[in-house]
Description:
The protein is of the alpha/beta class. It has a single domain (about 5-175, about 200-230), classed as Rossmann fold, CATH 3.40.50. Helix content is about 40%, strand content about 15%. Helix 1 (about 15-25) crosses helix 6, helix 2 packs parallel to helix 3 (about 90-120) and helix 3 packs parallel to helix 4 (about 140-160).
Amino acid sequence: MSNVVVVTGASQGIGAATVAAYRKLGWNVVATSRTIRPSDDPGILVVPGDIADPAVGARVIEAGLTTFGRIDTVINNAGIFVAKPFTDYTADDYDAVTGVNLRGFVSITQPAVAAMLTQGGGHVVSITTTLAEHALSSVPSSFASLTKGGLNAATKALATEYASRGVRFNAVSPGIIRTPMHPAETHEFLAALHPINRLGETDEITDAILYLENAKFVTGEILHVDGGQSAGH
């Protein structure tokens, strides 16, 4: 039986690249996002839904178990990023960002981990952001820090909680990656935020995810793939 990975935010950018990377390894994939289209690949189960809805996470995991029989890895990639001065954030901004970044993480990871425990182990990788540890005055993003920083902390807590039961928790902390989220006219400004002075590419993130997948002695790690941003400026 093939291994099974669940990927959230799977319709574009890092999520779509992650689906392709795991399929290349022969894994079956459960792919979910709000706007995802059906796939004609029998190794990809598409489950549309808004991960901020607490019912969606359980539905995605249940569909994966029904179709493929197991859940080996979850990639918590779905995320909302809203850059605003702190006093400009609205209650709607808060609900949107925490709904996807925090509630979405909890609602899909809880049933996934329950399944992993029954089968003897598994792996959870969350995509966070270096801004959570290395803030930039030019990118006011306290809500990203609030939520993705929380995921970094939870990654370590959960890695410790489940280490003896075979479930690993890690995070990949990207810099700014060339995806449809960032218009071309912003690329020069964004590239300059990294000491390496370029944007990251999606395959550089998937390489990091697959490293963690295969690194069985690594848990509780926040792997920075950020062009040196976390090191300083």
